[in-house]
Structure formats: C-alpha cells, structure tokens
Amino acid sequence: MKLSRRGFNKLALATLASPLLARAGAASLQGQGAGHTLGWNDDWRFKLGDEPAASDAGFDDAGWERVNLPHWGRLEAWNVSHTYQGFCWYRKRLRIDEDLRGRKVWFLSEAAMQVADVWVNGVHRLRHAGGYLPFGVDLSDDLRARGEAVIAIRLDNRYNPDVPPGKPPEQLDFCYFSGIYRNVALRVGDALHITDPVLAGSVAGGGVFARCMQASARRAVLDVSTHVRNDGDDVAAFVVHATLHDADGRLVARAETGRQSCNTEQSATVRQQLEVDSPALWSPESPSLHRLTVRLLRDSKVVDEARQCIGIRWLETDPRRGFFLNGKHRVPCGANRHQAYPYVGNALSDRAQYRDAKKLKAAGFDLIRLSHYPQSPAFLDACDALGMMVIECIPGWQHFTDDAVFRAAVEQNLRDTIRRDRNHACAVLWEVTLNETYGHDDFFRHMVDVARQEYPGSQMLTCGDAEGHDDALIRSYDVPYSGWDDATHSRPSRAHGAMSLHREYGDNQFGAYSRYDRGSGEYLMLVQAWNYQTALNQQLQLPWTWGQCAWEAIDNNRGMSTQVATCGAMDLFRLPKFLYHFFRSQRPPGLRDPRFESGPVVFIANYWTAKSPHDVVVFSNADEVVLLVNGREVQRRKPDSGPDVPFGDGSGFDLNYWQHQSGAPRDERASNVNQPIYGGGNARALAHPPFTFKDVTFEAGELKAVAYIGGHVVASQVRKTPGEAVALAMDVDLQGMDLAADGSDLVFVHATVVDAHGTTVPDATQLVAFEVDGPAELIGDNPRMAEAGIASVLLRSRKASGMIRLCAKAPSLAAAEFELRPRKPG
C-alpha cells in the first residue's frame, strides 16, 4: 500500500518534530497529566565570551541578549573558514506549579557545540563532551526543593583533541560552528516512567526500541522493547500497552503485557511482539510510516507514553550480489550532505531541515550519507517521511588519538548515535569507523562489535573504510567502502570479491576540477556535470559496486580552506547548478509523488546567449527530445549512446585526465578542462543518458526542448535569450512548507535580476539590498551581490503573527516586493 496524501499529512508532518520538540514551552511549567514533552526553545539569555560568575543562580543576566533556539554563538560570513572558537553562555529560569513538585522533570538538549557544562541552581551537574549528540539533566530534586531551577550552560568551542572529530579547525574539511544549534525541551513524567534512550545508558536498551524481525508483503513481526524505570519509594506494578496504526490511522497490531513489577531505583525491560498482516512496507518509492504508541499504565492509569513513526522494511546484503530492500535488489543513487547554512552555521530550524531533505529528494537522491557526524533528528524524520535512506556516521575525519579518553569518546558517540536513531526507517547503514582514518584495526574491529551489541540482529548493517585495514576487519563490515588505489587512480574492491560502496565519488576523481560555483558560467558547470556523469557511468559498470554517493549534494564551508567547497549539486543557498538537474534526470519518469518535484524531466543546460556553448546539452529521463529554435524544429535525438571514450591521453577509463596532460604541474592544470566534453558517449550505463545536440546555430529568441516517451509529449522547457536587466523578481524558498511564526524558522529569500520579459539575466552581478517589514528579520550580507543573476539572504521568523513584507532594490532596476504570512506554531 502506498502512503496516501491524507496519510502523509497526518503522519509524516507529525514526524517533522523530533522526539525532543513540542509546540509550546515557557518559563512556567504546568501539569498536563501523563508524561509529555514541551519544547523550550524560547527566550533564553545569551552572552558571547566567558563569564565564570554566570553559573551562580543569582547572577544578574538582565543585560544579556534574548535569543530563541536553535541559535548560533556568532553569526559568520557566508564564506568562512575560521569560525568562532571560544566560550558562550546560555541561561534560563524554570518555575513549576505546586502539583508538579512530585513529578519527574528532565532538561534535554539535542546538541550543542562542543563541550557543554550545565549548572542547575548554581550546582554543576553535567559536562558533556561532543558537539553532535544529545545530553540531559534530571531537574526533579532541584524543583522539588525550590519550585524553580536556574539553568546555566557554558559552551566551550575551542579546539579539543579529545573530542571527536578532534581535528584542529584549520585542518578540518568542515567547520565547528558554535552555539546551542538544535532544540531543547523539558520532559515531564512520573517516578515510574519510560526512560530516554540516550540518558538511560543501557546497551541495546533505554526508551522504546522497535526492531523488524521479519517483513514481507504478507506478514511483518516487530520486536518492541520498552525500558521502564522506577524512581519512586515503593515497588511499582505496571502494564505496558503497545499499538501500531498505519498511515490512514487504522489499528493494525496491538499487544499488552500482564502485570509487571519494578523495584525502587531499578529498571526493567519489557519485550512485546507486534504481528502485522499485509503490511505497508517502507521504501524510497513508498515511504509508508506507521505510528507506534507505547503506554505505561499503573493502576489502569496512563502514567507515561512514547510515540514515534516507524517504517516496516527488511534489509539484506550479499557480498557478491549487493543490497536488497524488501527483497528487491537496489543500486541507490546517493550523495553526501553537510548540515550547515550560510551565516547561521548548523542552527537550522526543523522546518529548514525538512526543506533541505525535500530538495535532495527532488534531485533524485535515495541515499544520503550524513558526513561526517550525526545530524539533526528532524532531518532523519524528513528522510523517513520522504523516502530517503541514510548512512549514519559518527564524528570523525582523518584523525585518531590513541589514548583512552579519545577512544572512549568515539565509542560513546557510536552507542549514543544508535540509541538515538535506531527506530528510524531511513537509517539503513551505520558507519562505525572514523572517516578516512586508517590503521588502528583492533579498535575499529571493536567498534563493529559495539554496533552489534547496541543493535542485535540482522537489520544492523555496518559499513566503513576498507583502505589501510587488514582483511579480517573488512570482512567484519556488512558493507565495506571501496578502497582508493593511488597507483591506478581507481577504487577497486579490497574485500576479496565482496561488493563495496563508493561513499564519495565525482569530486575526488577529478581533483579540484569538479569545483565550480553558479557564477562560473555555463561551460564550467557543464564540466562539473560531465565529470559526475563520467564517474557515475563508470561506477555503474564496476562489478564490485554496491552503490555510490556523490561528493557532495550541497556546497560547504571548510575550516581548512578559505574557499568554499563548490563541488555540490546546489550552492550554499540551495540554488541548483546544472549538476542538480543531471541527477534529477536519473530518476524514473514514472515516479510521480505529490510531495516533491517528480515525474518526467527535461532541462536545457544552456542560457541561450551568443556566448553560450554551441553544443546544447539537455538532461531528460524521456526516450526522445526535440529541440526547437523560435518554433522551428532543428534536431530530434535519442539519448546519447556513444562509446565510453578515454577522457585524457590514456586508453580505457581515465577519470584523472587532468593529471596526465603534458606533464603539467598541478597549479597549471586548470586549462586542461578546456577539451571536448559531451561528445555523445560516456553514458551507456546511466539510467537516462543526456541528449547532446551538436552545433546548434544561435539565433536570439526562444530555445525549446520537448520530451517524448512512447511518442507522447511528457514535458517541455523553454530558454529565452536574456535582454537588458530592468527589474528584480523575488521569491521565498518555502518548499511547500509555510514559515513558522516561532522565532526560529529560516527560509532563503532570492532576488533575481530579470529583463523586460521576466527572463533571468545570468551574467548580472548587481548589488541587491533587501528590506523587511513585519515579524521577521534578515540574516546575512545585505546588500548582497548577485551571482549568476540571483542574490540571496536568509529570513528568520519572529514569534509574532502578522504579514511579512519583503522588498529588494538595486540601482537602475525596478524593485521587487513579496508578502508572506507565517503560520502560527501548534
């Protein structure tokens, strides 16, 4: 059964909130019956820099800045390498009603960068080392004694070799952005409660753990473990009741235990089985989600409850046949993702995470590698709902410190990642080694064992680097990564016949010559797309390839370089390059989904100017494309089907053509990209080769591509020769999801330079100034120079209702205006 639109609205949108996020929160906490979670992002006090006295409960923070979370320690430039490396403080006071003094209350944080010290009422309660995973503090005793709690958090974002990744920031290929950059919440429960999966610290335990033990179109069996703790004064008797509802709200399975008991200050694990007939299986094409509800009852009264969306699916790998999902062989089209935005770093709202996921899904990606750290729970929620598999990575990048503190931190990161994300349908692979960190075989073999301790059973699929490790370690991975061979410039399998996953392809195979931004122009964006096409075409023919992930989906800032890594299919502002549309064209034309852009694709990778390439490249998943100039048919073509020609001066595949041109030193190789591309070949293994129209004579006016499948028109696109720039046009990249009036939501605002007919002027570089009126603020460089005809800035909501009015202005151009009304949270 496919997930209906009605079911998606009801279920998937609910998953946009992470387990820690709820829709209300304030400084005063009131009773609400059974266990519940309240978002607590609003109205924190913030100070950049160190303030040792701020740990005291009576410290006067009235002069500090008032902020909402997620929050950045310091706003950064859009192109930044040296992010803020220092201290910052957050403080907030919590008061509770009298009837809550006997309840359990926890403060929970999804993540903060990167060493967090937490004081409650002036008493140091926790030090959490690590910037990507959750932590929390039990406030119950503090609130019972005083009825209030002053929470003070000091973040230390200085370089720390003991905290993975542990790499000096100036040597790291991404950035340590500062701040409490994810959600915080308050969890309220009884002395008898379902524990938090991370705070419980229990191997393969804590919270609710739902494992699929069997799944087919006929029947599914789920094993549900619930971890219960009794912090009361007496032995507690209880019952656990579990229900499973499908996407349409129908009850499909239920189970109830007999009477259980738990001693005071002890925990108990209750296991139940849920059997589902004719289950709706989760897959990228049909991401059917079920709602699992586990209730804890004492004396027939619900005292706690855990709810989450899960997907029923079955994973298998075969060392010589590859990967299977629900019994179907798959070679997923994947990419790598860094989570950061310009200016605010990692401080994305949950809705911004969803908008990112939606753009990646629309690009045709069914597998996302979360490089190189655990990313937001909200992003995984979105992947569950949209149907994207993910590779979960622990924090690490080309660094290992062989001491007990670092090793213990790496191990704990793996345990906490699995405990946090094990119930996500999208989580299909767990990268258990530190990225591109070689040697240390005994420790990494231990990490594989740790993963299988935390997730017993066949649905735990581990993966990791094959390079530099011994054969025994490689065999212990369910999916080894393909090893780089410096002698042959290829990625052969090192696993003695086992299939492997190419975790990063495209950029590294061409050095820096896949790194072009949108302002580089048509030719260099075509070079980038050609490099990835050539690499993917080769990958799909290698017998050992399980699948592959492009490096990377989105441009990213780098600590090690003042240059943005521009090898992404989208830029930092999530604006597509030509490469994005190449990947989009590899999706089946019959896949039509109302949640994201899908179906037949036709995209003209040409601006149709007098300076544009005369060979016109069209990306399409159709079987025939007709090209028309000013209404006249000039060429009709089938997909490119030429040979896989050597790209360079060698024979066979030469993905490193730039290394072999007349012995040119590396700093002189940029000119080597100026050789023929899109010759009609290097596409025979692609699902949908491009269409290369040779020597199309330019004629100002309209260039149109019409796509056919089975002789029927399925899609078309028009390019018009741009005229003189006369105006600006503005849009807000909502991705079908309203801006939330919660004081935290973020969206990109784009101002496009257009001619009199509304056509983008792609060489426009005007300086554009943005203005906003209403409950929102602009974040980022303002004014900002247009790149390839578009200037972008970030818009952040305020916690207030009312119309937002935006204006963009540039000298000699007509201004643009845009209105949007944010949606009230809840």
TrEMBL record:
<feature type="signal peptide">
    <location>
        <begin position="1"/>
        <end position="22"/>
    </location>
</feature>
<feature type="domain" description="Glycoside hydrolase family 2">
    <location>
        <begin position="737"/>
        <end position="818"/>
    </location>
</feature>
<dbReference type="InterPro" id="IPR036156">
    <property type="entry name" value="Beta-gal/glucu_dom_sf"/>
</dbReference>
<feature type="domain" description="Glycoside hydrolase family 2 immunoglobulin-like beta-sandwich">
    <location>
        <begin position="218"/>
        <end position="313"/>
    </location>
</feature>
<comment type="similarity">
    <text>Belongs to the glycosyl hydrolase 2 family.</text>
</comment>
<keyword id="KW-0326">Glycosidase</keyword>
<dbReference type="Pfam" id="PF02836">
    <property type="entry name" value="Glyco_hydro_2_C"/>
</dbReference>
<dbReference type="InterPro" id="IPR006104">
    <property type="entry name" value="Glyco_hydro_2_N"/>
</dbReference>
<feature type="domain" description="Glycoside hydrolase family 2 catalytic">
    <location>
        <begin position="323"/>
        <end position="456"/>
    </location>
</feature>
<dbReference type="Pfam" id="PF18565">
    <property type="entry name" value="Glyco_hydro2_C5"/>
</dbReference>
<dbReference type="InterPro" id="IPR017853">
    <property type="entry name" value="GH"/>
</dbReference>
<dbReference type="InterPro" id="IPR013783">
    <property type="entry name" value="Ig-like_fold"/>
</dbReference>
<dbReference type="Pfam" id="PF02837">
    <property type="entry name" value="Glyco_hydro_2_N"/>
</dbReference>
<dbReference type="InterPro" id="IPR040605">
    <property type="entry name" value="Glyco_hydro2_dom5"/>
</dbReference>
<protein>
    <submittedName>
        <fullName>DUF4982 domain-containing protein</fullName>
    </submittedName>
</protein>
<feature type="domain" description="Glycosyl hydrolases family 2 sugar binding">
    <location>
        <begin position="82"/>
        <end position="186"/>
    </location>
</feature>
<dbReference type="InterPro" id="IPR006103">
    <property type="entry name" value="Glyco_hydro_2_cat"/>
</dbReference>
<dbReference type="InterPro" id="IPR006102">
    <property type="entry name" value="Ig-like_GH2"/>
</dbReference>
<dbReference type="InterPro" id="IPR006311">
    <property type="entry name" value="TAT_signal"/>
</dbReference>
<dbReference type="Pfam" id="PF00703">
    <property type="entry name" value="Glyco_hydro_2"/>
</dbReference>
<dbReference type="InterPro" id="IPR008979">
    <property type="entry name" value="Galactose-bd-like_sf"/>
</dbReference>
<dbReference type="InterPro" id="IPR051913">
    <property type="entry name" value="GH2_Domain-Containing"/>
</dbReference>
<keyword id="KW-0378">Hydrolase</keyword>
<dbReference type="InterPro" id="IPR006101">
    <property type="entry name" value="Glyco_hydro_2"/>
</dbReference>
<keyword id="KW-0732">Signal</keyword>
